[in-house]
Amino acid sequence: MIVDTERLQAYRGQLTCNFEQIDSIFTECMSAAVGCLSEKGVKDYLDGASLICMIGRGAEPVLTYLEEMPQVARQLGEESLSLISQTVWKLSRSPNGRAIPPFLQTIAEAARRLGSPEMLTYYCELVLDFMERTSSSIHGNQAATIPSPSLVDLLERIPGLLNELSIQGLHNWLEYGLQHYLNHPERQRDYFSLQSPDSRAILQRERHGTLYMDHERKLDLYMRALWNRDELFVPYTSAYDQLRKPLPYFDDRGIRVPDVYDDLSQVRGIDRYRALLAHIAAHKRWTTVIVADNYSPFQRIAIEVFEDSRVEYLARLEYPGLESLWLRLHPAPGENDCDPEKESCIRHRLAMLSYAVLNPKHGYSNPDLLEFVSRFYQLMQQEIHSTGDAAALAISYIARTRRQADLSSSIYFTDTEVDYRDDNRHMWRFIEEGDEEEQFDEERRPEKTEESGRLPPRLYPEWDYKSRLYRPDWVSLYESLHPSGEVALINRLLDKHQALAKHLRRILDLLKPQQYVRIRYQEEGSELDLDVAIRSLIDFRGGAQPDPRINMSHRHDGRDIAVMLLLDLSESLNQIPEGCNQTIRELSQEAVALLGWSIEHLGDEFAIAGFSSNTRHEVRYQHIKGYSEPWDDRVKARLAGMQAGYSTRMGAAMRHAAHYLEARKAEKKLLLILTDGEPHDIDEADERLLIEDTHKAVQELDRQGIYSFCVNLDPHADNYVQDIFGDQFTVIDRVESLPRKLPELFVSLTR
Amino acid sequence: MTDIDQYRISEEPFYQAQSEEVLLYQAAYEERLPVMVKGPTGCGKSRFVEYMAWKLNRPLITVACNEDMTASDLVGRFLLDADGTRWLDGPLTVAARIGAICYLDEIVEARQDSTVVIHPLTDHRRTLPLDKKGELVSAHQDFQLVISYNPGYQSLMKDLKQSTKQRFSSLVFDYPEASLEARVVARETDTPLDSATQLVKIAGTARNLKGHGLDEGVSTRLLVYAARLIKQGVTPRSACRMALVDPITDDGDIRSTLCHAIDAVFA
Q: How far apart (Å, rounded) are the C-alpha atoms in residues A521 and A519?
C-alpha cells in the first residue's frame, strides 16, 4: 500500500528516534505496516520502535524491529508488537544489552515456527527467564551485574533449535542445561552453543517427529516382509549439518537413513521411512552398476532420474499401493515454473518427467516430455529391460531438450527434490578417479590407533534426582577379567575356616531341594487322589465314561536361583577396621571364598564380579567368576588377586550386573552387593546424587525381576543405606564376623 | 458292529496336487507302508489324507492327538456296566479291525509313551496287542496308519522318538508356490484369481517374517478364510486384518508392518 507523504510525515513524527538510517527504510516499512495493521496497531508499532530507540543500543535494533514486526504482527496478531518491544525493554534493563540484536533476529523465525501469540509469549518468557537465571552478580542479592555468558550463543542457535524442537522440547533442553551448568560459565556456553555431547544427546531426545531409534524394528520387519532382505541400517543425523543437507544412500556397509522424519504432506514419518526403503529395495533388486566415466554430469543426473523411475515402475507392479504413497511425497512441479531463458531448468525438466511417469494425470503438455513418457512406457512393456536401457533413453532425452541456459550457474531447485529417493551413488562405477594425468598424492592411510586390550566401553545412563531425568549415556563402563593371584591363599583361607564350613554344610544339606510337589491326574501313582476318584465314580454311576487318572504322585522341586555377587573394590577396602588385625579386603576374600564354596555346594547358578570407578568416564567391572565357570582354581586365583582402589560408582555397576543376571533363565534372581561405604566418586560434588542414582538402579532391577540385597560393612551406613535399598540390606557392625555372616545370610535369603 | 459307512468319504474333496504326492501315496498304500505327512499348519495335510482316503475308497478314522491322551484312548478300555465290565475298542483298534486308514493328527502333541502303542502296527507284525483284554488283533489287510506332524514348532519337549520316526515313510508338505496357491484359494472359495493372487502376496510377506517375531507364517487355510470374508462383502483390508494379521500376532511392530503390506498390495 502506498502511504502519502503527509501521513508518512505524521508517522515519522510519532516515531521519536533520530537515527538517519531509519529514514532510508521508513517509507517501505510504513507501507508494509499500514498494509496489514489497524490504526491502533500502527501506533503500537511506532511506540514500540520509539521504546527500542530509547534503550541506547544504536540504530540496528530499531531497524530490525521496523523491518520484521509488520510480518510478525500479521501472522500472530497485533498484541505481539508490544510484547516484543516490552521484552526488548526488559533485556535492556539488564546487563545483557548485547543480546538484543540477536533476540530481534530470532523473532521472525520464532513467529513462523510457533504459529500462535500464546506460544510467542511463552517463548519470550523462556528467554527472559533464561536471562535472569544465567545473569549473576558478585555480591549475591543485589540486581545482576554480570551478563549471562551464554545468552547470545543461545539466541544465535534459536532458529535451528526451533526447527528441531517443539517449544516444550526447547523448554526441557534449556532446563537441563540450566540445572547442570548454571555455576560453570564455560560449560554453560558449550552446552547452549550445542558443542557438548550431552547437549546434543538431550536435543536428540527432545526432537519431534518419528525417531529412527523408536522404529528400528518396524523398518527391519518391513524390509524382511515385503522385500525379503536382511539389511543393516545406519542412521545419520540431519540436525546439525545445515550447510549441506545429507541424503539417504546405501553401500556395502548398510543403508544410511535419517535419524528422524517429520510427517510430510499427510504422510506419517514411519511411512516416509517405508517409502524410502521401498525405493532403495527396488534399486537393490533391479539396478545394475554402470560405468560413469563416459557420461557428462548432466547425463548422469538424467540417467539417475530415469533409473529411479524404472525401478519404481517395477516396484509398483509388485506393490501397487506404493504408487499413492510415493505420489504424495513426490513434488509436482508446475510446467511453467522455470524460465529456460534465465536459469538452468535441467532439474525442473527431469522432475517433471519423473512426476509424469508416476502420475498419469500430470496434465503437462510439452511434446518432448510427452513423447519421452510414452517411450519410457514402451520400454517398460518390453519383456526385459535394464539400467543400460534407461541410460540410453535418458541420454536421448537430455540431447533433445538441451538449452543454452542449462550451463548457467543459477539452477532452478524448487520442487525438484524427491524426498524419498537416495543419492544413487550405488549405480556408478568410476574407472578413473579424476581427469588428472597422474595421481601424485597417494591415498593417505589413517594412522593405526593404539589397540588397547580392553573391550569398548558400555554406556549407562545415570539418574539425576534434581531434574528427575536420566543423563543419557553418562557413565562409561569397562569390563575385564580380574587379574589372578595365588590360589593357595584361598585354599588356606578355606582350611582356616574348616569348623565354620562344617557348620555351614549342615545348614546347606537341610536347604537342598526337597520340597514336595504334587502331580495330579496320574493313571498310576503313589496315592489315590480322592477328589478325582470320587468324581470318576460319579461319572461312572451316571453312565458317562469315568476318568481313570485318579492317582497322584510327588516329585521334588529343585531350587532355581541365579546369584550375582557384586564386590565393591574401592580404595576404602584397604583399611583395617577398629578391633581387627586384617583389612576389609582380606575379610571379604575369606567371606566370598566361603560363600562361593557354599553356593557351589548348593548347585545354584553363581557369578562374582568386582567394581570400582575413577570418575564417570571409567567404571571398572571385573569378572571374578562367570556363570559357566566352575568353582575351580582359576576362579580362586582371581579372588586371591583381589585388589582395591579408586571410588564406588555403584549404580552403573549394578545395571551392568543386572544385564548379565537378566540373561539367566532362573526363576529367582538375586544380586548381592558387598560394600563398605556409600556410593561416591571424585567427579561428583553432590553426595546425594549417586545415592539417588543407586536407589533408582535398585528400582530398575526390581522391575526386571531381580532382587537386590546389600551387605554393608560401614558402621555409619544407617544414614543412607535405607534410602537406597529400602529394607533389603543388612549392616554388619563387627566386620570380623563377615566370613561367618555372609554365607549364613545367603542361606537365609534363599531358604 | 461298527458302522463303517460313517467313516467313508462320500464326496470328492478338493485337493490340488503340488507335485507327485498322490502317486507316491498310492504306491505306499499298495505296500501298506505307514505314512507320515509333515508340514506347517494349514498347508493341506489333513485335506490330502482325506482326499487319498476318498480316492482309495477306504474309510478314514481321524484322531486329534492331545497331551492328555493316553494309550487306552487309542486302543480301548474296559467300562463298567450293570453286568460287570465291557470292553470298548478305541479308534486305533476299530481301524485295524475294519481295515480303515487311521489318521493320527498332530501326533507330537500326544505324550511319547502313549504313541509307542502304534509300534507293532507299523512294522512287519501288523498286529495290535490289547494287553488289558488279553487279545492280539491282527490288522485288516486294508488297514494303514498315517500320522501328521508339524516340524515348525519343534521344541525339545515335542519331538517324535527316533524309534517312532523310523517306522514311517514321509511326505513333506509346504505352502504351495504362489501361483498354485492362488489357484487353490480361488478354487476353494470361488473368488477371482487376481484377488486370490493379492492375498497370496500378503501371505508371502508374512512368511518372510517367520523366525523374526512370527512362529508361523500365514497359512493357506487363513487365506481361504480371508477370501471367504471378502466374498461376504467385507473390504479386502479389513478381511486381511481379521483373517491374516490379527490371528497370528500380538506384536505391534509386526502388525504395523503387515498392515502396511496390505495397503501396498491393495492399491
A: 7
Taking the C-alpha atoms of residue A96 and residue A44, their distance in angstroms, rounded to an integer, is 25
| Nearest chain B residue (CA) to A324 | B267
Mark whether A166 and A107 lie in a shared domain: yes
Q: Is B190 on the interface with A (CB under 8 A)?
A: no
Cβ atoms of A537 and A546 within 8 Å: the answer is: yes
Question: Could you write out the DSSP letters of every residue in A537-574?
Answer: HHHHHTTSPPP---EEEEEEEPP-EEEEEEEE--GGGG
To test the contact with chain A by mutation, choose from B253, B255, B258, B259 the residue with the greatest count of A C-beta atoms within 10 A, namely: B253
Nearest CA in chain A to B259: A222
Determine the residue of chain B that is closest to A228 in CA distance: B208
**Which residues span the domain enclosing A536?**
515-557
What average pLDDT does this structure show over B7-33? Answer: 93
CB contact under 8 A, B267 and A325: no
Q: How far apart are CA A400 and CA A508, in angstroms?
A: 92
Write out chain B residues lying below 8 Å of A224, CB-based: 208-209, 212
> Are A564 and A604 in a shared domain?
yes
In this structure, the answer to whether residues A520 and A503 fall within a common structural domain is no
Is residue A451 predicted with pLDDT exceeding 50?
no
Contact B267 A320 (CB under 8 A): yes
Q: What is the pLDDT of residues A630-660, one digit of tens each?
A: 888 889 899 888 888 889 899 999 999 999 9
- Structural domains in chain A (count): 4
Task: Show residues of chain A in contact with B209, CB under 8 Å.
Answer: 221, 224-225
Domain termination residue (choose one: A429, A453, A471)? A429
Strand B135-138 vs strand B127-130: parallel, antiparallel, or unpaired?
antiparallel
Q: Is domain B4-172 in CATH 3.40.50.300, yes or no?
A: yes
Task: Say yes or no: A527 and A393 in one domain.
Answer: no
Indicate the pTM of the whole model: 0.60
With CB atoms and an 8 Å threshold, state whether B257 touches A325: no
Over residues A698-711, the pLDDT tens digits come to 999 988 888 888 88
Report the CATH number at residue A585: 3.40.50.410
Residues 42-81 of B with CB under 8 A from A: 68, 70, 72, 77, 79-80
State which residue of chain B sits closest to A316, comparing Cα positions.
Answer: B264
pLDDT tens figures, B145-183: 999 988 765 555 567 888 888 999 999 999 999 999 999
Q: Is the pLDDT of residue B207 over 70?
A: yes
Residue A431 C-alpha from the chain's centroid: 40
Closest CA to A402 of A446, A354, A340: A340
How many angstroms separate the CA atoms of B265 and B198, rounded?
Answer: 6
Mean confidence (pLDDT) of chain A: 84
Q: Do A319 and B264 touch (CB under 8 A)?
A: yes
Shortest distance between the Cα of A380 and any Cα of chain B, in A, equals 20
Q: Which chain A residues are closer than 8 Å to B111 by Cβ?
A: none
Q: State the pLDDT confidence band at A167, using cuts at 50, 70 and 90.
A: confident
